Amino acid sequence: MWKKNVFFALLMIVGVFASGYFLLPANRVPDPTTHDVNWASQPEVKKVLDQLNSEFQKRWRDKKIEPTPRADNLTIIRRLSLGLIGSVPSLEEIRKIEKQPSEQQVAWWVSRLLEDKRSADYIAERLARAYVGVDNGPFVLFRRRRFVDWVSNQIHTGKPYHEIARKLLVDEGLWTDSAAVNFMTVTLDEEDNQGAVDPIRMAGRTSRAFLGMRIDCLQCHDDFLGTVYLGDEGKKRTGVQEDFHRLAAFFNDTRVNLAGIRDTKKIQHYQFKFLDDDAESIVPEGVPFRADLLPDDGTRRQKLATWITHKENRQFARAIVNRIWAIVTGRPLVEPIDDIPLHGPYPPGLETLADDLIANDYDLRRLIRLIALSEPLARDSQADFEITAAHERHWASFPLTRLRPEQMAAGIYQATSLKTIDARAHIIQKLTQFGMVNDFVKRYGDIGENEFETRSSTVTQRLILLNGKMVKERLRGQTSPARLQLLNRDDRKAIEIAYLCVFTRRPDGEEMNYFLKRFSENEGKRIDIIQDVFWELINGHEFAWNH
Amino acid sequence: MNENFANGCGSLEHFSRRSVLKMAGLSGLSWLTPLATTLAQQEEQKKDKKAPAKSLIILWLEGAPSQLETFDPHPGTEIAAGSKARKTNVKGIQLGRALEQTAEQMDSISIVRSLHSKEGDHERAIYNVKTGWNPDPTLKHPAVGSVICHNTQKADKGVVEIPRHISIVPTNSPARGGFLGDQYDAFKIGDPKNPVADVKANVDERRFKTRIDDLKNFVDRKFANRRIKKMAGSRTLGGHNLDAALRMMSSDQLKAFDISKVSKQRAAAFGDTAFGRGCLAAIQLIQTGVRCVEITLSGWDTHANNHELQNNLIKILDPAYASLIRELKEQGLLDSTLVVCGGEFGRTPYMNAVGGRDHWPHGFSIALAGGGIKGGRVIGETSPTPKRETKNRVAELKDPHPIEDIHATIFSAFGIDYTHEFDTPIGRPMAISKGTPIKGLLS
What we know:
The complex is a heterodimer.
Chain A: H1 2-23, H2 43-62, H3 73-84, H4 91-97, H5 105-115, H6 117-132, H7 144-156, H8 161-170, H9 182-185, H10 199-211, E1 229-230, E2 237-238, H11 241-248, E3 254-257, E4 260-263, E5 270-272, E6 281-283, H12 300-308, H13 314-329, H14 350-359, H15 364-372, H16 375-378, H17 389-393, E7 401-402, H18 405-415, H19 427-444, H20 459-467, H21 469-476, H22 481-484, H23 491-503, H24 509-521, H25 526-538, H26 541-544, E8 545-546
Antiparallel strand pairs in A: 1-2, 3-4, 5-6, 7-8
Helix pairs in contact in A: 3-5, 3-13, 5-15, 6-7, 6-10, 8-12, 10-11, 10-13, 13-14, 13-15, 18-19, 18-23, 20-21, 23-24, 23-25
Chain B: H1 17-26, H2 32-48, E1 55-62, E2 85-87, E3 94-96, H3 100-103, E4 109-116, H4 122-131, H5 144-151, H6 153-156, E5 165-168, E6 187-189, H7 205-224, H8 239-249, H9 264-269, H10 274-288, E7 292-298, H11 306-330, E8 337-342, E9 346-347, E10 359-360, E11 364-369, E12 377-379, E13 401-402, H12 404-413, E14 421-423, E15 429-431, H13 439-442
Parallel strand pairs in B: 1-7, 1-8, 4-12, 4-13, 5-6, 5-7
Antiparallel strand pairs in B: 2-3, 4-11, 8-11, 9-10, 14-15
Helix pairs in contact in B: 1-2, 10-11
């Protein structure tokens, strides 16, 4: 009998531990394993950072613009969180960051974020929008989710960017097994190109995504407004229709069959009727500049991939530097993000970061660290003097950018949770977040692939924040900070937690007194007041903007 | 083979007056630009005087309806595959058999049966038909309702307190403002039998007032302090949207969304469906001053079991569409309300192995009524014996029209100069439409 009792007791103990393991949050906010406190002071890193910063400082001097002071660490940390995981830091993350030495907090946080799978997922989604857009694409033949996961895994495992790009351009196989081929299959059109990828869409997409160049107009006509300049250094020329279609010809052998994406063994002639021609002509493959970098061997796609990712093809490095800069800061160095002039001029920072990327095997993590520790990212968005559009344009002040829908949704969810919502969060919490964030973004309005363009806000968006389901339910939830404050009778602490959760900063004296007065005037309705404070902060401009 | 088809930049088709004038400016003839532009604008204003349409209702049939079972039947032919037709109240015009009530309103409706496009993929074609432009990764075009709202903004200021562009029961592709700005996106609502979401505060009036006072006078003021005041481009902090949202929340015009007061008999005529209720609400909304209402009926993508599935949807469409036209007529609103009914493309004039019809952008129909459109007319014809394998399918159409001609026709009905070019954010001038109005519909 006692054996039964012991067995039962053991069973109960195991049950309690299992419940605790699954229902209670795991040990939170681990230390990053790759954080090197001396990284930024290493001579070769310091040299790059000094060069990068001096270029911006020279620009400020030349334009006679006074830069804003350095922002405080938590403001910079909020920017990096929005840029790398699309959300604000949690209260427990803030607490952990503040335990680090002040001069190490930003670098420590970047290391933490880069090890967090959320950052790879988030950057992958941003890159995927450039590679395949946001549409669902051809039924069966295109698997967007699988594609984004693949990109995310490449980033998370530290794959050099030129290898990721090459894989996208040359891979073969089924869209389910070889996820990179979805870059091609998204252009399959059952009406016009039975079994073939669309070389025209591929040319436009490849040029924008990997060269940062919009040559789409050349599809239909030669450039006559002086907006597309091609050719080699010293031999600058305006773009012509042929440039676009010679690029398209690289994709003309690519077909889909039962084995997935494959190139035909025999060259398929690309034919096109140019604007002033009477008949179609055969267009050979060719590149719009640096033809000397194009190899003789390989399939047409392999040759193109080798040319694009060649170390001397600086446009490839410029394109990804500009895009990563935009992802981290909210605004690209060159706007529009995929319209970088081939022959310059270039803004401060772009060439230096491109050089460094090429010299360091296209290491995206290193690129992100450099941007995170650069002067422009650290500039405050407020000052005691008048901040003008020129300050923002030249990065003398951190530019205000409206949070994108996914940042708003994830930000609200995180700001109303004391614990971090990441891969370690409880499955139920993650599922709830997934559903709420998706619903919110759907109603708020996804921006689509041109997500770094300036957008205006809408009445719908405002109504969702004022009265929407997500804000309401998150503030009333059993584990919301607003409700948990019931356990804490310190009004000052409650206000501070609200500011830390939502604005990632502490309230100043004026703010503290303003809300303390509310508590003293409304005895007995503490939970309402706390919820009101959270609501007001979530609806505030300070939350809705990256600043 | 690849064709020189127009993408976003529109080949040379949209390089009309303004582009040429800009080029003239570049080539040193800049003195021509202001005068020529002014003269051209004066000419456009003269044309605008005849603009009967004030509101637009789009019955959006997402998934692509079969023209053979709806607006372009070919009874007794092989392509009909057994589908029958019915006579209408206009001699010589037939509709699909199931469009029983619509047939009685045919004298108010005209059909374009010879539309064609190059987009056979749903998402691309939806974009194409909603905007009149092919998808362009570098530039997002505005939907037709967004352009109308943009161009009537001044006239409506202070008059309409609810969104002027509304999408009822939308799918994932509601009409959007594109490069005109997100403020021209359609305001999305669900089945009108339910209250409009997010227009009621979650707390009592006193608390809500306190929240708004704090927000406007303390929290947002604090943020704006010491920060940039004059932001470049279209950026603003968004305070005006807060005011607009608050105005909407307290507006009497919100009643326009509410169909609960409508008599049961009247509501029943539209059908007991979200689509039918959407059509009913659309009448109230345009009476309130809303410029464009889009009501979606999805599910038309009948790759299998075409006849049964199409007929099921036509049973929803028919009473709603016919009642909408009838009521607009009875209330004297049809002359100023343009009703457009159609989807992103048509369906194949042959059946597949599982009794379905596949995608067919090479000859499909859209129906238009009211707003200056002459009723009881049919534009164009599709072949009763189309060849399965042919490179030039447009050649099989009689009086073919590219889809963008529908947009040019709509804009003309609203007195909007469809050749006018917007300055886009990427610095490229973009015509409102690259199509040509279909004269047979307007004259």
